[in-house]
Design a protein that fits this description.
5 helices, alpha/beta, 14% strand, 4 strands
Length: 122
């Protein structure tokens, strides 16, 4: 089973949202993100190991681009436009993670241990 979360960075200011994100961040063993460094800064959480950082993976497959915007990586590697809602962003991280792993020849996570996708909208 896979699941994803995405929300506006300003939502972290709501105590319950910030606490919920921190719990997910600390307890889920496999997490895929887009731009770990920015997520850690925005969420004010400790850095941790993640299964995939789609920003880095996309850059490794095409070093001529930076892919700091999730939409850029989605357009190039999935051939679709990134939606404006949080659910689209979470889904995009999932789909991009799976696609980039396949293209790069990386091993997928074990069945029934799929990572959670997490992203914060600017």
């Amino acid at each position: 089973m896979r699941s994803g979360i995405a929300f506006w960075a300003s939502a972290l200011e709501v105590r319950d949202v910030g606490a919920a994100f921190e719990t997910i961040w600390k307890t889920h063993k496999q997490v895929a993100v887009h731009d770990l460094k920015s997520l850690v800064k925005a969420a004010a959480v400790d850095p941790r190991e993640v299964v995939d950082d789609t920003m880095i993976a996309a850059h490794l497959l095409n070093p001529s681009r930076a892919y700091s915007r999730l939409g850029d990586a989605v357009e190039e590697h999935l051939g679709i436009a990134l939606g404006d809602d949080a659910a689209s962003w979470a889904d995009a991280v999932w789909r991009l993670s799976e696609k980039l792993r396949h293209v790069a020849g990386f091993t997928a996570p074990k069945p029934n241990s799929f990572p959670r996708a997490a992203t914060i909208l600017p």
